[in-house]
Amino acid sequence: MRNIIEFRKHVASMIGWRYERCGRGPGGIDCFGMFIVLGRALGYDVPDFEADPGNPMEVVNAYSSLSREISLAEVTEGDVVVLKLRSEFGDHIGMCIGFGKFIHCTNAGVAISSLNERLWRSKIVGCYRLVES
User: Fold this and answer.
1) Exposed, middle or buried: residue 133 (CB in 10 Å: 0-12, 13-18, 19+)?
2) Fewest beta carbons within 10 Å, which of 41, 93, 105, 127?
3) Strand partners of residue 98
4) Whole-angstrom Cα distance, residue 21 to residue 32?
């Protein structure tokens, strides 16, 4: 089901999108909205969350039928990375785009960062691969 070509098109189009809490499109997006858009681009039926979850781990748990946990060593393009930035649990989500990089939404907007940077690697809580339900 992993439509990597469509995923790459969406990744390229999202660069420069601004951050907006609970945003779901080009006018503004948050990390969860980005997960929905990119998950759908990959070809998965990723439903929207009715309320702002505020905790990406809750999102991962809510979509446990759509994903399985994998190790960081297994991560490939299209996989989900959950990170902890301001709390002890995962409060940030991104998607791997290959070559050790991931796309995510910061307060400055959509950005691409390296999983090999010490800052990000030390913040990883879990990695997940979307699967057909």
Assistant:
1) exposed
2) 127
3) 101
4) 9
Of 83, 8, 93, the C-alpha closest to 49 is 93
Instruction: Count CB atoms within 10 A of the CB of residue 58.
Output: 14
pLDDT at 52 (0 to 100): 54
Q: Which two tokens stand for residue 80?
A: 């989900």
**Domain containing residue 70:** 4-130
Q: What is the CATH number of the domain that holds 82?
A: 3.90.1720.10
Closest CA to 52 of 33, 77, 71: 33
Backbone angles phi, psi at 63, to 5 degrees: -105, 25
- Rounded CA-CA distance 44/37 in Å is 10
What's the CA gap between 95 and 32, in Å, rounded?
10
Rg, Å, the chain Cα set: 13
The count of domains in the chain is: 1
What is the per-residue pLDDT across 59-76, written as a single tens digit (0 to 9) for each? 656 666 788 999 999 999
The pTM score is 0.86
Which pLDDT does position 93 carry in this prediction?
87
